[in-house]
Amino acid sequence: MRVYFMGICGTAMGNAALLLKEQGHEVLGADSGIYPPMSDVLADAGIEVLVGFSAERLAELKPDQIVIGNAMSRGNVEVEWVLDQSDISYVSLPQLFHQTILAGRRPVVIAGTHGKTTTSTLTAYLLKQTGARPGWLIGGLPNDLSSGACLGEGRPFVIEGDEYDSAFFDKRSKFIHYRPQVAVLNNLEFDHADIFRDLEDVKRTFRHFLRIVPGSGHVLVNTDDENLTSLLPVSWTQVHRVGTGPESDLLIRNFRDSPEGASFDLVWKEKLWAQVGWSMHGLFNARNAAMAALAAALAEGLEDPTQLDLSSLDHFNGVKRRQDVLARTPAWTVIEDFAHHPTAVAGAIEALRAAYPEATLTACFEPRSNSAVTKRFESGFTEALSGADRVYLGPVHRAERIPPEERLDTGHIASRLAAGGLAARAFDENSALLEQVQSDMRSEPGGLIVYFTNGSFDAVPKKTAEFALGGLDKV
């Protein structure tokens, strides 16, 4: 087929385009924001990317199928043209996966509020080590895999199961389309306030997801998470409990964290499976590893999961932008992390405390996601950031689009943190935040600076790293 991707430069859309190209389809697309690395990746694969959107141009291209990205909405000229046609098929990206990529495969769907990218990467990594030749679609840049997407030749296909909606014309969660054979439930919290009303609304879509796991399938549940255990029992398929409590089928035991990394044991039904020592930090990452190990074993069809060799976990190098060290000098360490939810921020700070126990920790946070920019998590972010020694808050992303009474008040967060004894400031411009960080670096002997953002932070993390590596010598 000739397949046209509307909004092709998004991470998921671009990677999906690569997979369809690998399947032998003719692939092209358009977007308004065309920039590296995705633009370069698509160009290298021979996929044409057109600038902007044009109904006349799309009519001339005559595609067999159009994939409409999640970022597209009514009013877009190409969307309006497609809706006027009665002879051209259009689908959401998740529906495309249901019909093409996942048909005939054994999908391993990694779901949860946090940890999807790391757990998906770990699962694909372990399957690749066994020679299972898996496919995968990962919403990040794995350090140990060739790319974020691979068609693969074996039956397992690992995919992040996002609970966000599929398209403007399909408000079901994406993971509803993904044919789960092995379903991983990492955790469950309220998020995506633009999509869900409350926690119960999020639980509703997870219950829908569980109902489509077949009787021959498997569900992995983090039993340390009360929101997930409230979804049980599930009677129609096999459920495996993973966690730190005695009720767990796969038990995480003897967890220890240190500057060198974390260590822990994985015990399957009272049988020691593996003793892991790796460079990753945080109990949440140990849980990601446990989930991935069991998911990989079940995807391989092993009756005894402990037959899967987990020694390669010791060499796992993670995913870019997850505790990503941008610069390390004898005095300063600069880290970027993708966390944008209070629980993820708190977990990352706790893990970094273990990794750098003697360092003064400066946490810089950019409120950017659709939930983070609202007041809903204001108390949560205040509590999460209180684990740092110093907190700098960037301006709310696209604040003008949010009514003041609904907008996150970074000044209020800074005031509350300061009242608790922390050095905290809110900035109107990211450039001013950068100037303050650089001033601290000039006047202080050293420390740890971590940037929390799911966006670019106006390149402040990169500029801080460059300053740490070279700029200090020039001051």
Automatic annotation (TrEMBL):
Record's keyword terms, sorted = Ligase
- Domain Mur ligase N-terminal catalytic, first and last residues per copy: 3-99
Mur ligase central domain location:
110-296
The record, for InterPro entries, names: Mur-like_cat_sf (IPR036565), Mur_ligase_C_dom_sf (IPR036615), Mur_ligase_cen (IPR013221), Mur_ligase_N (IPR000713), MurCDEF_pg_biosynth (IPR050061)
Q: Which Pfam families match?
A: Mur_ligase, Mur_ligase_M
One BP term from GO: regulation of cell shape
GO MF assignments: acid-amino acid ligase activity; ATP binding
The answer to whether keyword Ligase applies is yes
The protein here is known as: Mur ligase
* Organism of origin: Coraliomargarita sinensis
Taxonomy of origin reads: Bacteria, Pseudomonadati, Verrucomicrobiota, Opitutia, Puniceicoccales
